[in-house]
Design a protein that fits this description.
DUF3945 domain-containing protein, 18 strands, alpha+beta, 5 domains, 3-stranded antiparallel β-sheet
Length: 682
Amino acid sequence: MNKKEREIFKQKVEQYPVIINRENSIDGKAQLLHFKDRVKDLDLNLIFGSDLSHSKYKNIHNDSLYLIGKQLQKPFYLGNSLEEVKQEIMADGEAEDYGPRYMQQYGSGILTNKKVGRTTAIYAHEEFDELPTDEDAISYAKDFYKRPDISRFSQPTKDRDVERANLSTSSVNSELSYHETHSNDSIAFQQKEAIDKYASTHQLPNGMKFVNLEKLLKNGDFFENPWVSSDRYDLFNHVYNGSKYGVIFIEDGEVAIHNLSKKELTTISNLEDYEFDPEYKKVSKDLAKVAPNAPDFSIDLGDPMSLDLSVIENDYYTPDKTIDDDRAKANIVLKPTSIVKGLEWNQKQDIYYYNPKNKKEPQLIGKDLESFADYLNEPAKIDGLSTTLVDINREHFAKTHQDQVKNIQRNLYIGRDKNANEDLFKKYLRKYDVYINPSKKDFEDANVLLGLSKDTNLNKVVEKMEKPKQEKAIGYIKANSKKDKATPNLARRENAKRLLEEYGFDATEENIEKMAKNIENEDKFNKQLKIKKSGLESVKLELADPEIRKNYAETYGKKTEIDKKTEQVFLEKPIYSQWFMQRDREEKEYEDLERLGFPSFYQGEEKQKFEKLSQKIPVHTIRKLENAYVATRDIYFDDKTSEVKNISLVSKTTKAKIEKNSKKYLALEHAKKASRNKKLER
């Protein structure tokens, strides 16, 4: 850049609009201001790399802008284009996810942390060499922060009073008022109900899917696409404001996600035919009738050629596939089953919820007492993420009986421990309109008791009665026949195959045999300890733990995408492999020091080695290595131990390859050192 180009670039960066929200909330505490004012508030200064000391700071780029200040140990890199500056501001905000240690070590978090608040760059709707207009900035602020303070944001005088008036009255807008008085969970639940209601009578056309926004937000592969990455923070805000489900439309020239809200879907349905697929318009119009008043948004994902749809395939919301095609005509088939005395608790039983006052047909809410009771004991599962009809119905039951679920769960466990018989369970749950292994007559009696016709709501309920001997043959738990020893093994193999596929493992013949044997061993173990769980349930419980799941992946998994990408980055050069190994040691050292009570800024030996090694690698490469390393970690809060767990997702095989390659670097360094020593000796 010449001098004039630098001045223009710096001026654009200074004028870039940003939002500051001190509590990440929508309570009106956000500020809209220019980046130069944010920099001034933080006692920082913008400076070009050419004006920095190259002897003091390594890998400084002359044409790039940096932030400097007394409180910074080193300049904070912003970039040499408006697009890069915007991305660095956003990345600084995301650094909060990696904790204070990451921010301190890499200079991130200076614009965003708990003390100074979150800094959000306004999305640029035009080419990145142009600034967003004042109107765009204010519109963005209103959409996501409702009533931001714009007093320090310069605008044309003639527009200022009008915009302030719009902002001040926005709180009385019916849709915003609705949102402000309802919880985020409420909006997510309404969206799920809207999807369920639509799916019960309609079939989605090709090219349209319901998508789980919360899962999508956590999908790293999805955001690797440069077209999508700029929308990540937009998506975060909509999930944060309560939206959990959206609808994705895939046309020849475009892919886009739209929020499941009345306003958004009504807007789509009112478009001209040449602007939007008529079939999609019809779906939008039908959905708008049942959609909630959620925050509105749409995200342009670009064209299908530039977006790998396979990476979000598993994030689609899919209703129960068993009655997916013709749900409206599907009958509710009751199959009363003979329950073996003493096995009431862990034998499979159909559990229905039916209250004639709701004017709905009976809903299947459980397939056995144990899982039903366990579900009521885990409120975290009432989260809008269920994907089968049984789970959706059970979730609805739990939400509508929130004051009673704990009491129901506790009494079910008491009944289990006292070996209560099935009749007692039936009589107890009947108080909550819950039926175990019901016949159609049970529902008819409930109608008559309320003064309704016995057939009310039951036109789809049919009953398939079996003779007692046949019942045992088709029962949910087959008797262990001495004559047919192959049957249990066949069932274990089928369960093993389903389990492998469910958790994304390789369903090879070898793995099926291993998993079937594992389930068989768990069956024996549970029987020895008199635990009322099947081997399949025990294995599923283990797989719910990320640490144990990693061990399963070693045995049953194929090379994951994480392994492929990790090898691609860290096997490129021996020094990159050594960087990975040293980063691992430094991570372990930090956790050990933190456990011993050392302050976060303490420089351990491994950290010093790591920083010394990092100085030998260019800054832009360090950024690539760090992003690749962070992608290999699973960081989560363990409710059982009340600890933050930081687990590596890299397989032992991949790690062994990296370690082997790193030894080439160590050997080369050793040879260099030996050569230098020989020269000194001469």
